[in-house]
Amino acid sequence: xxxxxxxxxxxxxxxxxxxxxxxxxxxxxxxxxxxxxxxxxxxxxxxxxxxxxxxxxxxxxxxxxxxxxxxxxxxxxxxxxxxxxxxxxxxxxxxxxxxxxxxxxxxxxxxxxxxxxxxxxxxxxxxxxxxxxxxxxxxxxxxxxxxxxxxxxxxxxxxxxxxxxxxxxxxxxxxxxxxxxxxxxxxxxxxxxxxxxxxxxxxxxxxxxxxxxxxxxxxxxxxxxxxxxxxxxxxxxxxxxxxxxxxxxxxxxxxxxxxxxxxxxxxxxxxxxxxxxxxxxxxxxxxxxxxxxxxxxxxxxxxxxxxxxxxxxxxxxxxxxxxxxxxxxxxxxxxxxxxxxxxxxxxxxxxxxxxxxxxxxxxxx
Length: 365
Description:
By secondary structure, this protein is an alpha/beta fold. The protein has 3 domains: about 5-130 and about 170-195, 3-Layer(aba) Sandwich (Rossmann fold); about 225-280, Adenine nucleotide alpha hydrolases-like domains (SH3 type barrels, Roll), CATH 2.30.30; about 285-365, Translation factors (Elongation Factor Tu (Ef-tu), domain 3, Beta Barrel), CATH 2.40.30.10. Helices cover about 25% and strands about 30% of the residues. The protein is built from 9 helices and 17 strands. It has helices spanning about 15-25, 55-70, 80-95, 100-120, 165, 180-185, 190-195, 210-215, 220-225; strands at about 5-10, 30-35, 70-75, 125-130, 135-140, 140-145, 170, 230, 235-240, 265-270, 275-280, 285-295, 305-310, 320-325, 330-340, 345-350, 355-365. Helix 1 crosses helix 6 (about 180-185). The longest helix is centred in the N-terminal third of the chain and has 20 residues, at about 100-120. The termini are far apart.
């Protein structure tokens, strides 16, 4: 075994995970590659050709790099676990009138669990992924910090990782920018990989049609929720909609009718199948409740702590006062009003570039 240790690298076949594996191999680690089959695209009923991290082409790309570099590679089928947790949660959250973030759940509950399980089986001390983030340690606690590349930083989707997971994880790409990573791939002779594009779709909704996915997954859903009512913020009926699960907070396009001025979804009421529409200013909130808290940098989220709070991926975040009511719930008071707080999405708290912790948005106020 290498003096640096043995590391299990999650390889999707894309440029980031491939360069991660090559970097660690070049540094002297004993690398074992693993590609996780999370989703069978054919079962989604989508209309587009299979692409992305679960496609046969991507699996073959990952395997070929392992052959080229001379390290072992395995394929792990976790479709059952993935479907039972991530997809069922995705559907349940929309049915509950919330907007889920499946990538966070997958990282926290499926991928890391599967990686650590296989790492133990293969006697690997570490696991590594191609995420653009940095792991730091202070006062005996591990925590996530933002990666060098602001445009690619993925600290937001990693807030749920436990101390045990962080203690065995490596993110080699954190100190690099995407152009630098592309150049590394080209320097190693993988010119096609260096030019490879990226997908921003949810892996199990590769045609980006989440409405169609819900209709296919939930028998009779369309009939059960059709003919719901659009209300204005004063409670007046202003139209009919296709069903509350097919709308998200902040949505403006795809409402199905014109209102004479731009209107946005400001509230979703599952019990009454009502969707409230308002103007842009009606989306503004001054606080929210966040549950399922994972405190990362500190043992607990400090009381009355000022933190930059990010409520969606790639948003700049807003300064807020954190007021924990329990270890698992925080009341957030924005110091300047924030637009588009969507229950079901993740809220991540930052001290500078460091992730203090995060949780799931439960409601706004």
